[in-house]
Amino acid sequence: DFLFFWGAVFLVTTTLVAFLKKENEELIPAKEETKGITDTYRLLFSIIKMPAVLTFCLLILTSKVGFSAADAVTGLKLVEEGVPKEHLALLAVPMVPLQIILPLVISKYTAGPQPLNTFYKAMPYRLLLGLEFAFLVWWAPKVKHEGGFPVYYYAVVVLSYALHQITLYSMYVAIMAFNAKVSDPLIGGTYMTLLNTVSNLGGNWPSTVALWLVDPLTVKDCAGAQGHTCATAAAAEV
């Protein structure tokens, strides 16, 4: 119902924009960056061949490997340890004002000549928070009781998520500011889209790999079944 409602809102509003919104014909249209799809990909290829861009792309494709497991698996492991999914969803509510305020605050520090300094400074703290998330998962069964989890556990989770958001947005805003700063104004849209796409890919592929590695790297013990290691899915099922 939720998806159906917002899908309908999306269709109605975009249809209204298509039919009711008119272009201002008095303005002289700006010269397009490229003439077509072929020119666009040829331009992208010429950009990515530049040594500085190629090196930067390799860096941002691998810079988030250290955070992938903490970002992708923590919530799933907390649910596995018994934390209700609806409680985790509610914990995201206090993060919304923080997510609105953080870019405004961080942009003051990324507006200078070296926006990536903020990216570098936030990285070690985000790595340390990965250990904090591992501690939260380990701690969950220790404090769980019949009524669920104590309030102080949720308070620690919210605080940890808030600190994580600060480091996450510091890196995100910094990389966006850097991409905007180095993009050639003549082909700004194409240039920025390329860098931002590579940046997003650099965050997505490590998370996918981390999720794939969860089962192979998880150590399991079989209780009451001698001779079984539960190392594989088949053995665990037996």
Automatic annotation (TrEMBL):
Coiled coil start-end: none
GO MF terms held by the record: acetyl-CoA transmembrane transporter activity
InterPro entries for this protein: AcetylCoA_trans_1-like (IPR024371), AmpG_permease/AT-1 (IPR004752), MFS_trans_sf (IPR036259)
BP-aspect Gene Ontology terms: acetyl-CoA transmembrane transport
Official protein name in the record: ACATN protein
Listed PANTHER family: ACETYL-COENZYME A TRANSPORTER 1 (PTHR12778:SF9), SOLUTE CARRIER FAMILY 33 ACETYL-COA TRANSPORTER -RELATED (PTHR12778)
Main location per the UniProt record: membrane
GO CC, one annotated term: membrane
UniProt cross-references to SUPFAM superfamilies, sorted A to Z: MFS general substrate transporter (SSF103473)
Location in or out of the cell: Membrane
Membrane topology classification: Multi-pass membrane protein
Keywords: Membrane, Transmembrane, Transmembrane helix
Membrane-spanning ranges: 6-22, 43-67, 87-111, 123-140, 152-175
Organism superkingdom: Eukaryota
